[in-house]
Protein backbone atom coordinates (compact mmCIF):
# COMPACT_ATOMS: atom_id res chain seq x y z
CA UNK A 1 0.00 0.00 0.00
CA UNK A 2 2.87 2.35 0.83
CA UNK A 3 4.48 1.78 -2.57
CA UNK A 4 1.16 2.29 -4.39
CA UNK A 5 0.64 5.60 -2.56
CA UNK A 6 4.09 6.79 -3.58
CA UNK A 7 3.56 5.76 -7.20
CA UNK A 8 0.27 7.69 -7.28
CA UNK A 9 2.07 10.75 -5.90
CA UNK A 10 4.67 10.57 -8.66
CA UNK A 11 1.96 10.23 -11.32
CA UNK A 12 0.18 13.24 -9.81
CA UNK A 13 3.39 15.26 -10.00
CA UNK A 14 3.88 14.32 -13.65
CA UNK A 15 0.25 15.29 -14.36
CA UNK A 16 0.78 18.64 -12.68
CA UNK A 17 3.80 19.32 -14.86
CA UNK A 18 2.10 18.30 -18.11
CA UNK A 19 0.00 21.45 -18.73
CA UNK A 20 3.08 23.63 -18.23
CA UNK A 21 5.21 21.70 -20.70
CA UNK A 22 2.60 20.30 -23.08
CA UNK A 23 3.22 22.76 -25.91
CA UNK A 24 6.92 21.91 -26.13
CA UNK A 25 6.95 18.33 -24.87
CA UNK A 26 8.03 15.53 -27.21
CA UNK A 27 9.23 11.96 -26.64
CA UNK A 28 13.00 11.74 -26.22
CA UNK A 29 13.72 8.06 -25.52
CA UNK A 30 12.85 4.83 -23.77
CA UNK A 31 15.58 2.90 -22.01
CA UNK A 32 16.82 0.31 -19.57
CA UNK A 33 19.05 1.06 -16.58
CA UNK A 34 21.07 -0.84 -14.01
CA UNK A 35 23.37 0.17 -11.19
CA UNK A 36 23.77 0.69 -7.47
CA UNK A 37 20.05 1.51 -7.04
CA UNK A 38 18.90 -1.62 -8.86
CA UNK A 39 17.64 -2.36 -12.36
CA UNK A 40 14.67 -0.89 -14.17
CA UNK A 41 13.58 1.40 -16.95
CA UNK A 42 12.99 5.01 -17.86
CA UNK A 43 11.06 7.19 -20.29
CA UNK A 44 12.40 10.58 -21.39
CA UNK A 45 10.38 13.62 -22.49
CA UNK A 46 12.10 16.63 -24.03
CA UNK A 47 10.53 19.89 -22.81
CA UNK A 48 13.24 22.27 -24.08
CA UNK A 49 16.12 21.78 -26.56
CA UNK A 50 18.50 21.31 -23.62
CA UNK A 51 16.14 19.89 -20.94
CA UNK A 52 14.78 16.35 -20.65
CA UNK A 53 12.43 15.09 -17.92
CA UNK A 54 12.67 11.37 -17.12
CA UNK A 55 10.26 9.03 -15.40
CA UNK A 56 12.38 6.39 -13.64
CA UNK A 57 11.64 3.11 -11.84
CA UNK A 58 14.26 0.74 -10.42
CA UNK A 59 14.75 -1.91 -7.74
CA UNK A 60 16.58 -5.07 -6.71
CA UNK A 61 17.15 -7.33 -3.68
CA UNK A 62 20.70 -8.10 -2.55
CA UNK A 63 21.94 -10.54 0.07
CA UNK A 64 23.38 -8.59 2.98
CA UNK A 65 25.15 -10.57 5.74
CA UNK A 66 26.76 -8.38 8.36
CA UNK A 67 28.31 -8.65 11.83
CA UNK A 68 27.40 -5.66 14.00
CA UNK A 69 28.72 -5.34 17.55
CA UNK A 70 29.66 -9.04 17.58
CA UNK A 71 26.24 -10.29 16.41
CA UNK A 72 26.12 -12.05 13.03
CA UNK A 73 23.05 -11.10 10.97
CA UNK A 74 21.67 -12.73 7.84
CA UNK A 75 19.67 -10.38 5.75
CA UNK A 76 18.96 -8.46 2.61
CA UNK A 77 19.13 -5.00 1.15
CA UNK A 78 15.86 -4.28 -0.67
CA UNK A 79 16.11 -1.44 -3.17
CA UNK A 80 13.15 0.34 -4.71
CA UNK A 81 12.78 3.89 -6.04
CA UNK A 82 10.37 5.55 -8.44
CA UNK A 83 10.48 9.14 -9.52
CA UNK A 84 11.47 11.97 -11.83
CA UNK A 85 14.84 13.25 -13.03
CA UNK A 86 15.54 16.44 -14.96
CA UNK A 87 18.62 16.59 -17.23
CA UNK A 88 20.35 19.71 -18.47
CA UNK A 89 22.05 18.60 -21.69
CA UNK A 90 24.21 21.34 -23.25
CA UNK A 91 24.58 21.16 -27.03
CA UNK A 92 27.63 19.50 -28.63
CA UNK A 93 29.34 18.28 -25.42
CA UNK A 94 28.67 14.69 -24.22
CA UNK A 95 28.31 15.71 -20.56
CA UNK A 96 25.08 16.56 -18.78
CA UNK A 97 23.87 17.49 -15.29
CA UNK A 98 20.91 15.80 -13.63
CA UNK A 99 18.76 16.06 -10.49
CA UNK A 100 15.81 14.07 -9.29
CA UNK A 101 13.19 13.35 -6.64
CA UNK A 102 12.13 9.80 -5.82
CA UNK A 103 9.62 7.84 -3.79
CA UNK A 104 12.04 5.78 -1.73
CA UNK A 105 11.48 2.16 -0.62
CA UNK A 106 15.09 1.23 0.20
CA UNK A 107 15.44 -0.85 3.36
CA UNK A 108 17.69 -3.32 5.20
CA UNK A 109 16.19 -6.48 6.73
CA UNK A 110 18.49 -8.31 9.18
CA UNK A 111 17.87 -11.47 11.21
CA UNK A 112 20.06 -13.09 13.88
CA UNK A 113 19.39 -16.23 15.93
CA UNK A 114 22.30 -16.62 18.38
CA UNK A 115 23.36 -20.21 19.14
CA UNK A 116 25.37 -19.23 22.23
CA UNK A 117 25.35 -16.48 24.83
CA UNK A 118 25.50 -13.02 23.29
CA UNK A 119 26.03 -9.53 24.65
CA UNK A 120 23.18 -7.16 23.85
CA UNK A 121 23.59 -3.63 25.08
CA UNK A 122 25.52 -4.10 28.32
CA UNK A 123 24.35 -7.60 29.32
CA UNK A 124 25.06 -11.20 28.33
CA UNK A 125 21.96 -13.25 27.44
CA UNK A 126 21.29 -16.90 26.61
CA UNK A 127 19.88 -17.98 23.23
CA UNK A 128 16.51 -18.77 24.85
CA UNK A 129 16.31 -15.32 26.40
CA UNK A 130 17.11 -13.65 23.08
CA UNK A 131 15.31 -15.86 20.57
CA UNK A 132 15.48 -14.32 17.09
CA UNK A 133 16.53 -10.70 16.61
CA UNK A 134 14.69 -8.97 13.78
CA UNK A 135 15.90 -5.67 12.36
CA UNK A 136 14.18 -3.50 9.78
CA UNK A 137 15.95 -0.29 8.78
CA UNK A 138 14.09 2.17 6.56
CA UNK A 139 14.83 5.66 5.28
CA UNK A 140 12.88 8.77 4.30
CA UNK A 141 9.86 8.23 2.06
CA UNK A 142 11.24 10.84 -0.35
CA UNK A 143 14.85 10.88 -1.58
CA UNK A 144 16.79 13.39 -3.69
CA UNK A 145 19.45 12.84 -6.32
CA UNK A 146 22.13 15.13 -7.75
CA UNK A 147 24.64 13.93 -10.30
CA UNK A 148 26.26 14.14 -13.73
CA UNK A 149 26.45 11.88 -16.74
CA UNK A 150 28.44 11.07 -19.86
CA UNK A 151 26.57 9.97 -22.99
CA UNK A 152 27.60 8.31 -26.25
CA UNK A 153 25.37 8.34 -29.35
CA UNK A 154 25.34 5.90 -32.26
CA UNK A 155 22.42 6.67 -34.54
CA UNK A 156 19.16 6.24 -32.59
CA UNK A 157 20.96 4.45 -29.76
CA UNK A 158 22.47 6.14 -26.72
CA UNK A 159 24.57 4.74 -23.88
CA UNK A 160 25.02 6.83 -20.76
CA UNK A 161 27.00 6.45 -17.53
CA UNK A 162 25.70 8.51 -14.63
CA UNK A 163 27.00 9.03 -11.10
CA UNK A 164 25.95 11.11 -8.13
CA UNK A 165 24.57 11.10 -4.59
CA UNK A 166 21.13 9.77 -3.63
CA UNK A 167 20.17 11.36 -0.29
CA UNK A 168 17.60 9.29 1.62
CA UNK A 169 17.95 10.58 5.18
CA UNK A 170 18.93 8.86 8.43
CA UNK A 171 18.09 5.17 8.95
CA UNK A 172 15.12 4.40 11.17
CA UNK A 173 15.57 1.04 12.89
CA UNK A 174 12.87 -1.25 14.29
CA UNK A 175 14.72 -3.84 16.44
CA UNK A 176 12.74 -6.64 18.10
CA UNK A 177 13.25 -10.00 19.79
CA UNK A 178 11.17 -13.18 20.05
CA UNK A 179 12.91 -14.60 23.15
CA UNK A 180 11.74 -15.23 26.71
CA UNK A 181 12.72 -11.71 27.78
CA UNK A 182 11.19 -9.93 24.78
CA UNK A 183 8.90 -7.79 26.97
CA UNK A 184 11.28 -7.40 29.93
CA UNK A 185 12.00 -3.67 30.58
CA UNK A 186 15.71 -4.21 31.27
CA UNK A 187 16.09 -6.29 28.12
CA UNK A 188 14.20 -3.65 26.15
CA UNK A 189 16.68 -1.05 27.39
CA UNK A 190 19.57 -3.19 26.13
CA UNK A 191 17.79 -3.65 22.80
CA UNK A 192 17.61 0.14 22.51
CA UNK A 193 21.38 0.37 23.02
CA UNK A 194 21.95 -2.28 20.35
CA UNK A 195 19.52 -0.55 18.00
CA UNK A 196 21.53 2.67 18.29
CA UNK A 197 24.67 0.76 17.27
CA UNK A 198 22.87 -0.56 14.18
CA UNK A 199 21.83 2.99 13.30
CA UNK A 200 25.49 4.05 13.54
CA UNK A 201 26.54 1.12 11.31
CA UNK A 202 24.00 1.99 8.61
CA UNK A 203 24.23 5.78 8.89
CA UNK A 204 26.56 6.12 5.89
CA UNK A 205 23.76 4.78 3.67
CA UNK A 206 21.87 8.07 3.97
CA UNK A 207 24.25 9.38 1.27
CA UNK A 208 23.88 6.47 -1.12
CA UNK A 209 26.28 6.47 -4.11
CA UNK A 210 24.07 6.14 -7.18
CA UNK A 211 25.98 4.91 -10.24
CA UNK A 212 23.90 3.84 -13.23
CA UNK A 213 24.57 2.52 -16.74
CA UNK A 214 21.77 3.16 -19.24
CA UNK A 215 20.90 2.01 -22.74
CA UNK A 216 18.34 4.10 -24.65
CA UNK A 217 16.46 4.13 -27.93
CA UNK A 218 15.95 7.73 -29.05
CA UNK A 219 12.97 8.97 -31.03
Would you kindly provide a written description of the structure presented here, covering whatever features stand out?
This protein has helices at 2-21, 127-130, 185-202; strands at 26-35, 38-48, 51-63, 66-68, 71-88, 95-104, 107-112, 118-120, 123-125, 133-138, 142-154, 157-167, 172-177, 207-218. It is an alpha+beta fold and 219 residues long. Strands 1-2-3-5-6-11-12-14 form an eight-stranded antiparallel beta barrel. The longest helix is centred in the first third of the chain and has 20 residues, at 2-21. It is elongated.
Main attributes of the structure:
219 residues; single chain; two-stranded antiparallel sheet; 3 helices; 8-stranded antiparallel beta barrel; 19% helix
Summarize the structure.
The chain has helices at residues 2-21, 127-130, 185-202, and strands at 26-35, 38-48, 51-63, 66-68, 71-88, 95-104, 107-112, 118-120, 123-125, 133-138, 142-154, 157-167, 172-177, 207-218. It is α+β, with helices and mostly antiparallel strands. The strands form two sheets. An eight-stranded antiparallel beta barrel has the order 1-2-3-5-6-11-12-14.
